[in-house]
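Researcher: Structure prediction, please.
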Amino acid sequence: MNYNETLDFLFTAMPSFQRVGAEAYKPGLERIISFCQHLGNPQRNYYTIHVAGTNGKGSVSHMIASILQQAGYRTGLFTSPHLSDFRERIRVDGEMIPKQKVVNFVDKHEAKMRELDLSFFEMTAAMAFDYFDQSDVEVAVIETGLGGRLDATNLITPILSVITNIGMEHTEFLGDSIEKIAQEKAGIIKKSVPVVIGQRSAEYDHVFTARAEELRSRIIFAEEAWRLNAVEHFDDDNQHFSLTRMRDERGYELDIDLLGDYQRHNIVTVCAAVDFLAEETPLTISRRAFRQGLASAATSTGLVGRWQVLDREPYTVCDTGHNADGMKYVAAQLEGLECEKLYCVIGFAKEKDLNKIMELLPRKAHYIFTRAQIDRARNVEDIAEVAERIGLDYECVATVREAILRAKSLATANDAIFIGGSNFVVAEI
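Model: Predicted structure follows.
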């Protein structure tokens, strides 16, 4: 098979959650354990950091990976979903896995993958583990796909676990309460492996504390380890943070090339995680690597779609925030934009709670609702029904491309355009 034929096989023989949703979800570790044994358990041949959470886990994973790269370590990074290229999921030192490596892996192991009836995500995770081993990776940052306890990535034994936050998402798989979802995320905590909790909450702190005590794992609440003092208004390239490390009251002035307001939570999580790695693991991370890794997090790891500025006249930005917790921060940032008129090109996935998410949207905007060209995309008629009920100013356009062109035709140089609501919409920019 060539590369395109290989991708066709992967997306048809192993339907992905990204494309078709629930029918592709296969919880449990039995298949991935068997397949990784077939590969020789490559995931055991380098240090790993395991990252879970409802929101922020992608940004946190990329920031940690960038810092490790700056520290001189050959660094693997496994994330999901991808936006435009399957290979975005698997990177070494910021570079995507070569196409031929994808082809070779599938050619070599196709029979075993079929025998075990692997899910798309299980295959992808195993490919990442194997490629990192082949590439002589020293440390890898591994982001969970969905949940934690039964996620295919949970066969690793990391040197640190990180849980960013908990929100109501994927309730059909993870549970119908914050506490149940927290229990699933807490499943990544391993015996005697420390865990960093990014955001505290009375709704779920006790879940993590109990799990950590049961497994004799040290628990670090990031907000107790680091204090965010101030955030300077960002330009189109960077934003500046002033933080204090609580144990010695040492101040840090840090820049990051990620522009979303929600990064104020993520940077505290990253600071706590990296501080632990530098102080209490075999990894050596200097203050220079720490600073430079944050300042180049997006550029050095290929992260896109997080409050990404696409144009300046009119100011055009996209963001992949797609659930209520994520949209809350995006909506607040949109409210704060200095522009004459705001145009929002928005689409959603089928399983999202439209009522909860759309109630958060700014009322001052003109909305252009659309549908991404993917099975999981929500019909515009459903979105329009909610928009009508809550009184939004809107129109509907069939495709993302046409919707963006419509927004550009309406906007002047002093206006702003936002594109988001779903990974799938951002992927079609």
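Model: The chain has two domains: 3-301, 308-427.
Researcher: Thanks, that helps.
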